[in-house]
Amino acid sequence: MNRGPKRLVCSASAQYEWTRKGAGPAIRFLATDLDGTLLTSEKRITAHTKRIIIDAQNRGLTVILASGRPLYSILPFAKDLELDKHHGFIIAYNGGLIYDCTSGETICEYTIPACMIPALMAAVPCEVFRLHGYKGNSIVVQGEPDEWSNYIARANKMPLLKADDFVEAIVEPQHKCLVTGAPRRLWHLEKKINRLFESSLSAYRSESFLLEVVPKGIDKAESLRKLLTMLNGKTEELLCCGDGYNDINMMQLGGLSCATRNAKRPVKQIANFITESNDCDGVAAAVRCLL
């Protein structure tokens, strides 16, 4: 009977077995998600994880923070991990922007044209969903915020602006838009948006209550592939850590993938390794184990 790929919790023996068998080239890059992966439930990086990752960078590891968060919300964590001193990178908006922490410059970005916002808004019934965009360092919500709107604003430490006229409020191209609502209804809306905007937008859920709308074909994996090409890196040299649905493509790209113990079931199913939870320094355990 085919029992599927082997799953194991990271340990010192795992690294020994992997290297002893010559399973692949040395890992040069770490791409890790933030929420539910690198960050604890209190949305912070522990002192232990910080120490392990900075030490790994001192030994030559290139760290890439790959998150659905906007750049503004990721920069404090990049600074905490000293990515600016070790030529680290940020992939923000689920792949919509690639940022060089050392130069402080955006390498490339992908956006939804502002002229598409009216059509997107028309596809999202405001009676049951909340559509969100970005204006500067603020999150704009169409109409009254719901509980998930407030959660997103708190998690990103960004002010939430209510807009009665969403089209008038969103005048800049958007790296992504967010839709919150009941999980079952979002499932149907995801299919609707992908059908209506087949050639221009992609929609997928990062959480059961959260639908992300991005430029067509953009995700963490695609931006990681582009970044590795720029750095003359290989996917076989990449370790990816994640916990959510939007991490699956990225983890399938990497030479090695590691899911946190708290990860969604489909994420665990495609991972090479399962490490400790995000509240128990899971990424640090994976780095110590596999690098």
- Class per helix and strand makeup: alpha/beta
| Distance linking N and C termini | 33 Å
SSE topology string: HEHHEHEEEHEEHEHEHEEHEHEHEH
**Any idea what the CATH architecture of the largest domain is?**
3-Layer(aba) Sandwich
Q: Which bin fits the share of residues in helices?
A: 25-40%
What's the number of extended β-strand segments?
Answer: 14
What is the overall silhouette?
Answer: globular
Give the uncertain stretches in residue-range form. 1-22
Going across the major beta sheet, what is the strand order?
A: 5-4-3-2-1-12-13-14
Number of separate domains: 2
Total helical elements: 12
CATH-assigned fold name of the largest domain? Rossmann fold
Percentage beta strand: 15-25%
Average pLDDT confidence is 91
Largest sheet: 8 strands, mixed
What is the class of the largest domain in the CATH system?
A: Alpha Beta
C-alpha Rg (nearest Å): 19 Å
What's the CATH H-level superfamily name of the largest domain? HAD superfamily/HAD-like
Report on this model:
The protein is of the alpha/beta class and 291 residues long. It folds into two domains: 171 residues, HAD superfamily/HAD-like (Rossmann fold); 101 residues, Hypothetical Protein, Haloacid Dehalogenase-like Hydrolase, Chain: A, domain 2 (2-Layer Sandwich), CATH 3.30.1240. Helices cover 35% and strands 22% of the residues. It is built from twelve helices and 14 strands. It has an eight-stranded mixed β-sheet with strand order 5-4-3-2-1-12-13-14, sandwiched between helices. It has a six-stranded mixed β-sheet with strand order 8-7-6-9-11-10, with helices on both faces. Helix 3 packs parallel to helix 12. The radius of gyration is 19 Å and the shape is globular. The two termini are 33 Å apart.
